Structure formats: structure tokens, C-alpha cells
Amino acid sequence: MKRLMLFLPLVLALAVGVFLAAGIGNDPTELESARVGKPVPEFSLESLHQPGEMLDQSVFQGEVSLLNVWGEWCPACWDEHEYLMWLANDKGVRIIGLNYKDQRENAFRFLGRLGDPYQTIIFDPRGSLGFDLGVYGAPETFVIDAQGVVRYRHVGVVNERVWEEILLPVVNQARGNS
Amino acid sequence: MRFIPVVLAALLALALPAHADSPEFYDFDTRAEEQRFRNLIAELRCPKCQNQNIADSNAPISKDMRDQVYLMMQAGATNDEIVGSLVDRFGEFVKYKPPVDRRTIILWAFPAIAVFGGLLIVAGVVLRSRRRGSDEPALSPEEKARVEQMLSDKDPSSRS
Amino acid sequence: MYPELGQLALIIGLLLAVLLATVPLAGAMTGRDSLQAFARPLSAGMFVFTGLSFAVLTHAFMVDDFSVAYVANNSNSMLPWYYKFSAVWGGHEGSLLLWILMLAGWTLAVAIFSRKLPSVMVSQVLSVMGMICVGFFLFIIITSNPFERILPNIPADGRDLNPLLQDIGLILHPPMLYMGYVGFSVAFAFAIAALINGKLDAAWARWSRPWTTVAWSFLTLGIALGSWWAYYELGWGGWWFWDPVENASLLPWLSGTALMHSLAVTEKRGVFKSWTVLLAIVTFSLSLLGAFLVRSGVLTSVHSFANDPERGTFLLALLGITVVCSLTLYAFRAPVVHVRSRYGTLSRETFLLLNNVLLVAATLLVALGTLYPLVLDYLNMGMLSIGEPFYNATFSPLAVAAGLLLGAGIFSRWKKTDGGWMGRKLLWPLAVSILVTAAVMLNYGGFAPWAFAGVFAAAWVTLATVWDLWDKSASRKGRWHGLKRQSRSYYGMVLGHLGMAMVMAGATVVSNYGIARDVRMVPGGSADVGDYTVVFNYIGERQGPNFTAQYGEFDVFLDGRQVASLHPEKRNYPVGMSVMTEADIDAGFFRDVFVAIGERISDEAWAIRLQYKPLVRWLWLGSLIMAIGGFLAIADKRYRIRVKAKAAASSGENAQPVGAKPSEAGT
After folding, report:
1. Is C427 exposed, middle or buried (0-12, 13-18, 19+ CB in 10 A)?
2. Complex ipTM more than 0.95, yes or no
């Protein structure tokens, strides 16, 4: 019995090893969102293109969409934009933009250079909607279903791997339900 | 001509940053409130940083979170409401104090478990040693003699 | 050309390590002295080539050889020479080379200072150390080569050392820390050797003890330096954050403290052998775990080196092999036969056993808190943060309990202590502790339960220690004679415990009674913090060697009298494009007054951080005293006794090592 007890440290160490091994390669800065399963928070913000035209959470009703949080100041947003263009134009994905903590002129410059994949762009210069959504950096992309409920939040760029492996399954599931 | 100053004033107004609500500095009425703010921001974690609380972090999101804490304090919210509003948006991750629930009960109870378990072990060891009958000499007679010889020139008042 | 020599030296070092890991061990297994005799020369050779490699890297830094990638990433031509030197270990690859250098150094030290040990034992110990070296040589050569070159496009200048690291802290902290981490490999090697040859006895404990104590002392210094450095460097007045990397250094310290005490019991009384061996294995494993956590990116930390899965995997494999092999050996070979020795309920054995329980509980607590987020994430139960509030609630009671136990335990005797006698001895320290604690509470402005507990425990330990010293130094030939008669080992213990009490007192008081304020100040204005008034005189600009700075002048007043003039700065480092806050501190034995410049609020006004930190220096002074205690203990003359040629006497079978004093007062 006593001899068996001596194996306890080994067993514990192996268990710890499993957890450590699982942690390798994970990005510890990617957090899961606290807004999943909840509706997009109420907001009333201007559209980027039409100053004075107010947008609110009803803009998400009716169709599953991606909400892409971006800013001209964010280098990774420049990297992912080409793929977003492809998603919007070639795959017909509805993407709504959230221009986060940015200035209008800079945002227009960005879109002028790289193109505009967004059906609508919400202008959030103070980041208030971003804050309510739990955005902590750009780029981030949300999957919102046709009832305006948040289904998923991805931190980081959207590229082919992210779309195929992570976002598309969620989008399909959201479409299946609506 | 007379409307030039008006136009200038309007242009000036447009040029000001729209961050009217973001306080540059957090003023408090009492020291107690000041301390309460400091305690709150020390216990909240910046979601973006490499393990810093929002008091020490310079990240923009930390500033936003500090603003939220400050504004809610000014509006009379309780600590629970303030922390709750941030957890609602950013998740449990932003609290440095883990919740006490099914997942973390082992964690919180651990000191008590460990000490209690340890005391049981110690009690077991001590009792077992007491039950083991008379003490057998650890040294053989030859070894004992050698020890005596070594001890003979030492200060007699040294004790064990 | 030279960097390639450095790489070659590492490869030769690896080869020597492989030989060291195998040849002497084979000699020990087969009883062939000729093979065993290779142990010492191989150790020396391994150290020489590691040193050579380190020298080559250092040279590359000193001459600004930016063709070496590591130099280009961590240095700059404008960097002052002493920071160029410490930049050698400013990044992952170089710090790993420092680690290996220390490992080779400790191996050589064991080889040199083990003349009295049986050669079989020495061979086994050095072989185990050789095995550890093999693992690390492979790691550095395969995944983290510091000598990689950027050819043919040699950068014109380097990316500069992170300004946070351009400080004396970097010069001192990692070397001390590594000396500690790596030093525990010696205790580990002794434990493995004892498990292999089955001779787990008091003699083994006696040989292991000085090595363990020295490693522990270095680790104590290393941790204290890290805390002190963070305190003045980061500008926020914090001295411990329970960050995963900080915890990673605390784990082997807690376990190492338990090991030190357990070795004492095994040496003196021949009991707790299984525990001691396990602690030796666990402590070094925790050192390796620490290395893994810092370099793998598995846990988020301000201190971690860059996240690299390949390195993480390699290190985990290294850690895994070491831990699994040693714990398996332990499970099969550790003694289960009870030593025939009795001890009473209030014996010193029992107190030390309880002490170890608390220390192991603390170790497991910190390990649990550090790794728990990882476990929950793996089980998809969410992402939680575990930080200071948790540890304050859970670690503090353990620390206080350990302190209370320590004070009482000082009066315990081996085998049996009379309860009544002990109780009477403790009355006086109890009474005075309560008075002292009450006085401290009054002085700092109020009762708080944890403050009381912490200060009481610190006072309790101090008074019990001093009372015991007073008791023991009573002598017919006078007090001075009585004091001189105590061994260095005893004084080492005294200092160790007093240092511990000082740390507890400092931690308790600064946590409970420290005041931090962010105030809006304009030049000419003033603000107060605690009893002190700080006047903001002016703000100006100056030029440093590789930065420009805005600096302010602040005068500090107490009761109307000026006590200090402080000049905190905000520095701009153009090369790294970073801004650093350099606080200025009026340091004192009983308190620090701390001023740092925050953000500019308007044209005139600045956000200034003021802090009043009572007894904060006691944290590091106490740690220094603890470490001195450790070094003193190993200077005890029993470790310098020459064993006569009678080989039989040193065969290690005796419960009483020849020549040693059979009992040292209190240790």
C-alpha cells in the first residue's frame, strides 16, 4: 500500500504534463466572448458614409452577417482586408463594418485604397459599441445571426483558414436555424 | 464679414475631439472614494495585455475600462455592479479574483484541504511512531564508544 | 569567425556532457575505478568549453558584432558597455547559455568539493548532472542557438535592449536566480544517486545539505532582487504581482525551504528519508517547470520571452523525461521500511514535519493557482484569471500559520519536549508579541485583522528566536563566551528565521498601511500622501546617453521640515520608440516616499503618482538576511572536517558521520 502511494507524485506529474502539453501553441491572448448567445447591445451611431443617418441594432435583422471591427490605424486590418473583399464579393457574405476608434478621413482613405466590402459601416469613433461588445483590440470579427444575436467572436485576422475552419461552420449553423 | 467669427467658432467646435466623456484625470470628492477606485482598478485585468491590471496598463482598452469604473462610481453604482458590467462585456477573465463556483471550489478550498490532509498525515506518522514499542538504539556499541570518545573533549553544556 | 567558434564550443560541451553522463555511471555500476576517474576531468572540460562559448557571445556584444542575430536583436551601438554585458542574458538564447554555464559551473564545483565522498557516489552524482547538461545542450543547439548569423545583410545597428532591462536589475537578478534554480540540480543529483545505489541515509543528507542551502540562498537573493527591481523600475510601486513567472520562481523556493528543513531532520535523526528525497526531486522539477513556463508562452506573463511552440515542446519533453524518470525511480526505490525511531507529539521532528506540511501546502497552492486557468481552458470550462486577491486570501493564512509554528517550534527538542516547559518558555514571547503588535497597529493608524496576524507572527518569530539565543548563550564564563560558542550553523538558522520575520513584517505593513494616490498637480502646487506633503517645483528636460527625458523636481516635507528632493523622469528612447517612467524614491529604513510622473493632463497640469510605503525595504533586507544566514550555515566548521584515511569510516553506512558534532544546538 505504501509502495503504491509513492506512485502518486508520478501520476500527478503526468496529469500536469498533459495540461501543459495541451497549452503549447495556444494563444493565451485570445479570449472567448462574453456576448455569445446575447443580442447585439443597443446602440445609436452614425453611418460612416452618411453622416447624420443613424444606425441601430436593427441593422442586423433578417440575415446572418459578419461584424468586422476595424480601423485605419490597425496594421493587421490592412492585411485581412483583401480576404474580406473576396468574402463579400465572391462568396456573397454580408459584412457589416464597425469603424472603431477611427477618424472619418482616415477610414475613407483606407476604403479608397483597399476597397469596401461592407454593406454598412457603423462609425464608432469613441469605441462605445466596441466596448459594449467586449472588443479589446482590432481586428475582431463577430458572427451575428438573423435575429441579431451574437453567435461567435473571432480575435485576429480573418483569412482562409479562419473562415473555413472557424467562421463558416458557425455561419452555416446560424443560417440553418433562421 | 460679421459672420466670420461665427464660422471660425463653428470650425473650432468641430475640430475639438469628440471624446467629451473620457476624463483626462479622475477626480474624487473624498479619499475613501479615491481609495475605492484604486482598489477596483487593481483587481480588474486588462484583456489585451500580458497580465496587467487596468491600473498599471497603458493600453487604450484599459483606459476605457477605467473610464467605465469612474463613470459608474460617479453615478452611484456598487462595486458588484461595476465589476459586473465589465464581466458582462469582457468575460470572467477580467476579474483577478476568481468566482467561487463549481469549477473553482477545489481552488478556494485547497488551503483548508491541504492543511487538514497534512495534519492527518502528521497525526498518523506521530501516532505510528509512538505505537512502535521501545526505542532501539540507533548506534551499535562500537559506534557508541566512538561517539563517546569524540564527545569527551567537547563543552559539556552543549545540548541536543 | 568567432561566433562559429562559440557554436563549436557548445557542441564540444555537448559531447563532453554525453561522456560525463555515461562513463562515470558505467564505472559506478561495474565498480571500475578507471572509468569513474573520468568524472572530474570531464566536468572541468565541460565547464571550460561552456565558458568559452559564453566568452565568445560576450565578446560579440562588446564589439557590436551585429552579424550575430541575437546581438542585433538585443543590443545597440549606443548602449553603455555595462548594459551590453548584461544584454548577453537579456533574451532567451543568451539567458539559456547563462543557465548552461551555471549548470557546468555547479557540476565542476561538485567535482572539486567532493574529495571526501566515496568515488562511486561522486561518479553517480556527476553523471546525473551530466545528463541534465545533455538535455540543455541539446535544447540550445537545436532550438535556441545564440550564434545564428544574419548574413550577408548585416544590420547597421541593433534593435537595442528593451529600456526596461537597461538597469542594474538585469545585471544582478537573472544570474542570482539561475544560480538558485540550477543549484537545486545538485540536491536532485544526490537524491537520484542515493536512489540508484540504495544508500539513503544520514550521510547522504549531510553531503546534500550545504549544496541545497547555497542554492536556496542564491534563489532567495534572486527573487528579492527581482521584486526590488520591479518596484523601482516599473514605476507603480508594486513588489509582487503573483504573475505566473514570479510564481515559477516562488515554487522552487517554497519547496526548497521544505527540503532544507527536511534534510536537517534526516541528517540528525535519520527519519523523513522518503519525504526528503521526494522534495529534492520536486524542487528541481519545479525549477525546470519554471524554465518551461517562462519560455513556452503557455501562460500569459509580462516576463515571458517570446512565444515559440517548438521551444515549448522541447522544454516540455526535457521536463517530462526528467520528472517521469526520477519519480519512477523514486516510486520503485524509495524506502518504505520505517526507521525505528520514536518521537513525541511536541518533538522537534513533529514541528518540522508540520512545517513541511505547511510549506508543501503553500507550494501546491501556488502551483494550483498558476496552472488552474490552463486546466479550465483545457476542459473548456472558461477562461479565468487568478491573481492577487485570490492569493491574499489563501496564501496569507498559510504564511501566518507557518510563522506561529516556527516561533513555538524553536523551543522544541529532538525526540521529546515537555509541553509544560515549552508553554512556560513561550509565555514571555507571547506577551511581548501582543504588545509589539498593538504598538505597530497604533502607530500606523488602525486595526486590521490580517495586519494583526502578520505582524504578530513576525514579532512572535523574532522574539522566540532571540529568547532562544539568549537561553543558549547563558554560560558560566559570561554571555560573550556563550554567544561565541554557538556554531555558525546555529547563527545561520537564527539569521534565516529573523530574516523571514522581517519579510513578513514588511509585507504585512506595506500591504495594509501603504498609501498610493494619483493626484493632479501643477508646478507650484502640492499634495499629500500619508503624513507627507509633496510640493511640485518645476518640470524640465534633459538628455541621456540613449534617451531624452522630461524630469520634475518634487520636494517632500514631513511636519513642515523638508526630508527629500526627488527627480522622477519620463524617458523617451528613440531607437526602441518607447517611453519609460522612472520613479524617484526617498528610501528609508522605515518607509519609502515614492513619486512618479504620469500623463500630462493639460498645458500646466500633470498626473502624479505619490506613494507612501512603510517598511517596504524590510522585504528585501529581510531576504538578504535570510540569504546571509544560509551562507553562514554552510561555513560551519563541520563541513570542513578532514576525514582521516580510514576509508571504512566514510563508507556512508554509519548513522553518525565520523568527525561531525553529533548535535548542533537547534539545527
Report:
1. exposed
2. no
